[in-house]
Write a structure and sequence with these properties.
Blueprint (H helix, E strand, L loop, with lengths): L2 H36 L2 H21 L4 H8 L6 H7 L16
Helix pairs in contact: 2-3
């Protein structure tokens, strides 16, 4: 196999990996939406409050990074990093949203 063929084979494998990754992310999004839609209204409010409270505390009050909020405030493991980034980096936390108003 020539170097160019090796390069193309690697690029094809990478493209396939990206395709599988997008499919898995789409399936996870569907699963999360189903989870949310099956919560009662009261549980949705509690979940919303709980998440907002932790993001506000870790990002605005403590001025923590995305990883700080994820691991130290929420108590998640490293696998949660990709989940948060998939939905917009945890909504850009407060970095661009509220820093100037605190």
């Amino acid at each position: 196999m020539t170097p160019e063929e090796k390069k193309q084979k690697a690029l094809d494998a990478l493209a396939k990996f990206g395709e599988v990754q997008r499919e898995l992310e789409a399936a996870y999004e569907v699963s999360c939406d189903e989870f949310w839609n099956n919560l009662s209204y009261d549980d949705q409010l509690k979940a919303f409050y709980s998440v907002c409270k932790r993001i506000y505390d870790g990002d605005i009050k403590q001025r923590g990074t995305y990883r700080y909020v994820l691991y130290d405030v929420f108590g998640f493991e490293p696998d949660a990093y990709g989940v948060g980034m998939q939905c917009g980096g945890a909504i850009v936390t407060g970095k661009q949203i509220g820093r100037a108003h605190v």
